[in-house]
Amino acid sequence: MLQRILVIIKVITQLEIRHRRLEVDMEIRKIMSDSNSYDNNNNKEEQQFHFVLVHGAGHGGWCWYKIRTLLEAAGHKVTCPDLKCSGIDPTDFNTVFTFADYNQPLTSFMSSLPPNHKVIVVGHSAGGKSVTDVIHKFADKVHIAIYVAAVMVNTISTKWLMIIFGKMYCELA
């Protein structure tokens, strides 16, 4: 399953989505349907993941619209929360004083997940700090953490997937 996710992310980062949207969608469907190539698990339910896409500074959940569309077309659940004062969140930036305040929508969302529900958290840019915070607070609910050209705080002590500038790395602590 992890290899399948790596291939999907690689396809997304290598293809020009704007001009090849149909090709990308077909490639993702092919990868997701070819379960024998990547693992021996043929249970379709386990092939469906819940992605939580965290935007960077100056953006909102809207910035993930292309990736969200592709992942949902492949049958995955996708959540793109707006952090405080970002996207369509109406909070006045003069009232947000701490990182915990800024990250509260993501923290609330993770708290609301059922105990056995695991998500794949993806952070871009400053969203990497939010991903690291989620890993520490909700380690039992994070299946994989993916950093896409993101801030990465060097305090992770378990196995996490990191994707930086389109290149793939695995850290085994």
UniProtKB/TrEMBL annotation:
Name the InterPro entries for this protein.
AB_hydrolase_1 (IPR000073), AB_hydrolase_fold (IPR029058), MES/HNL (IPR045889)
Transport listed as a keyword: no
> Which GO terms fall under biological process for this protein?
jasmonic acid metabolic process; salicylic acid metabolic process
Q: Give the signal peptide range.
A: none
Domain of life (superkingdom): Eukaryota
User: Which keywords, in A-to-Z order, does the entry hold?
Assistant: Membrane, Transmembrane, Transmembrane helix
Q: Which residues form the AB hydrolase-1 domain?
A: 51-153
A GO MF annotation of the entry reads: methyl indole-3-acetate esterase activity
Membrane spanning segments where? 144-165
SUPFAM superfamilies this protein is in? alpha/beta-Hydrolases (SSF53474)
Coiled-coil segments: none
Designated name of the protein: AB hydrolase-1 domain-containing protein
- Species for this entry: Cannabis sativa
